[in-house]
TrEMBL record:
The chain crosses the membrane at residues 145-169, 181-201, 213-232, 238-259, 271-289, 301-329, 376-400, 412-434, 455-475, 495-516, 553-575. This is Major facilitator superfamily (MFS) profile domain-containing protein. It comes from the Eukaryota. It comes from Trametes pubescens (White-rot fungus). Residues 147-582 form the Major facilitator superfamily (MFS) profile domain. Residues 14-41 are annotated as: Disordered.
Length: 588
């Protein structure tokens, strides 16, 4: 584990409220402790030890273990309760709260109201203890990498499922007597489910923990593969694929948070790189496997194979323990209240749980409100949506080029996607280096990095997407006719595309999290909905687009659109701070 510094602070639990306060060094002379003395109340020493502080760590950066969607942050603000450790296992509630990081300073209502503040200062928030074995960050590196690997594979599996049916569209069309667009809905509707499901799974995981949401939806998703495989009409197949998408979206929702639970900010570079690559590498595997399975034993066995894969992965997700700090500490608080009878022992989530109406606003209304009001969120989401949509566009444009012009079977067409996997693998080596560059920038600024310091990754990756599309379009027939090794040109286009899309996504996702630390849940929900909408729409018209415009100009159209997006990270890098200063929600 990387070295981390430790600081210790002792505070009086009336320090914010007495008019007779003074501070002096601790009478025992313990270095690093401060005792606040009140002439009327005497002294109180509450040792708060913060660990894993690093030059990249910043209290104003969002803690992804904070229950954003289910906490009333207007009353409570933010707290370091879930990341702090203390000798006693408690911290004073009134001293634990702080304003939501924004250029608009708002004191939490619980502190602004004197009566509420007096009630609050009697409460003790449960924290982790020093070297606490129940703290997921203290688990062994091997176990944390096991959890990370299971999370990444779970994301790969559900992403794989969305595209695996493209391996044998022809048999689906002939059996159910439907056209290409209707068959493409088997992909689109599952991707729509990816966008809808997280709106429910995210708040539910904050209320009940990550573990039950890992287990229950994943199991139901496995079951919904059965009616897909035995469907006797296209309606059954499409409806069940939609429900597969809703329940399969749980790993997409939970993986990033689970990884953040077990790895701290200065440790998670490679782990987050795996998470960033998984939702883009998974769909690429789908046509590779689906092509050969459909070619040999038919489209129904594509679904059965997917169900087997999903079942095995789901069995491993059952081994993931609860990692969400608010839930773990809440259970500890409940146990302590029962054993000690001390009703002042609690957690912030218990004190300031949002109402159902507030949760609905946070998950269903605010994301769309922010899309309209926040240009950073809108343009970043559109950029991510374009990249995600282009990935699914490749699943339909490659069969046009290699199936129709080169005459390859579905299995051979699927193999062409290996080039995209090569690009994804290259991005896995580069993304951690970009993270280290970010940490260096943060260190140069005294640990207080700007959100815009996340953008160099996008500034690197943005060039590769239009380049890949121009290569694909103008090395494909009729510009370059089939024959000899001419297939190398269009196949090689997948390498720069795979590289660019992962680097862009990792950078954009980190930027949105840092830019909207008080509204992370809403910002990510907005991005997910727009991204899934793009991925769902592309399959419905890409084949017709390539037939009508030709391979060269169809690919070039998307190349020009992606080229038009290139200035976005550069403009935000230059003007992002000014734009954020005009926002009610963005970081200061």
């Amino acid at each position: 584990m990387p070295h981390s510094e430790t600081s210790t602070i002792a505070v009086h639990d009336y320090a914010h409220h007495s008019s007779h306060q003074k501070h002096e060094k601790h009478p025992e002379g313990r270095p690093g402790h401060i005792t606040f003395t009140d002439s009327a109340e005497g002294t109180h020493d509450l040792a708060l030890t913060r660990t894993r502080t690093h030059e990249s760590h910043n209290d104003n950066r969002p803690d992804l273990s904070f229950p954003f969607a289910t906490t009333d942050i207007n009353r409570a603000g933010f707290t370091d309760e879930y990341r702090a450790v203390s000798e006693s296992g408690f911290m004073a509630a009134d001293l634990a709260l702080r304003p939501v990081p924004s250029h608009v300073y708002r004191l939490p209502q619980a502190l602004a109201d004197p009566e509420k503040a007096r009630e609050l200062r009697q409460m003790k928030l449960v924290t982790w203890k020093e070297a606490d074995p129940e703290d997921p960050r203290n688990w062994s590196n091997a176990y944390r990498w096991y959890i990370t690997t299971v999370c990444a594979i779970a994301v790969v599996q559900v992403a794989f499922a969305s595209a695996v049916v493209t391996g044998d569209f022809k048999d689906i069309e002939s059996e159910f007597h439907v056209g290409e667009v209707v068959t493409a809905l088997s992909v689109s509707l599952m991707v729509v489910g990816f966008g809808i499901g997280p709106l429910a799974w995210s708040p539910l995981s904050e209320l009940y923990g990550r573990r039950p949401i890992w287990m229950i939806p994943s199991f139901i998703y496995v079951i919904f593969n059965i009616p897909c495989a035995v469907a006797t009409n296209i309606q059954t197949l499409l409806i069940c694929r939609f429900f597969c998408g809703i329940f399969a979206s749980a790993p997409l929702t939970l993986a990033g948070g689970t990884i953040s639970d077990v790895w701290d900010n200065n440790e998670r570079g490679m782990a987050i790189a795996l998470f960033a690559a998984a939702p883009y590498g998974g769909p690429v595997l789908g046509p590779i496997v689906g092509g050969f399975v459909g070619e040999t034993v038919g489209w129904r066995w594509i679904i059965w194979v997917n169900m087997i894969f999903a079942g095995v992965v789901t069995a491993f997700t059952f081994t993931i323990p609860e990692t969400f700090a608010p839930v773990l500490l809440r259970k500890r608080a409940e146990t302590l209240r029962e054993t000690t009878g001390d009703l002042t022992i609690t957690t912030e989530q218990e004190l300031f749980r949002a109402s159902i109406s507030q949760i609905l606003v946070e998950t269903l209304l605010r994301p769309f409100q922010m899309i309209v009001e926040e240009p950073i969120l809108l343009l970043m989401s559109l950029y991510v949506a374009l990249i995600y949509g282009l990935l699914y566009a490749f699943f339909f444009s490659y069969p046009v080029v290699f199936g129709e012009y080169y005459g390859w079977n579905d299995g051979m067409v699927g193999l062409t996607f290996c080039s995209v996997l090569i690009g994804v693998a290259l991005a896995l080596f580069v993304t951690p280096r970009i993270e280290r560059d970010y940490l260096r920038r943060a260190a140069d600024k005294g640990g207080l990095a700007d959100p815009e310091d996340r953008l160099p990754g996008m500034m690197i990756g943005c060039w590769f997407v239009p380049i890949s599309l121009f290569i694909f379009g103008w090395t494909s027939p009729p510009a370059v006719l089939p024959g000899g090794g001419n297939w190398v040109g269009p196949v090689s286009s997948g390498v720069p595309f795979g590289f660019g899309m992962v680097v862009i996504y990792a950078s954009a996702n980190a930027y949105l999290i840092d830019a909207f630390p008080g509204y992370v849940a809403s910002a990510l929900a907005a991005k997910t909905v727009i991204r899934s909408g793009s991925g769902a729409a592309m399959p419905l018209f890409i084949t017709a687009m390539y037939h009508n415009l030709g391979n060269g100009w169809a690919a070039s159209t998307w190349a020009f659109i992606s080229a038009a997006m290139i200035p976005i990270p550069f403009l935000f890098y230059r003007y992002g701070r000014a734009i954020r200063s005009r926002s009610k929600r963005a970081a200061a």
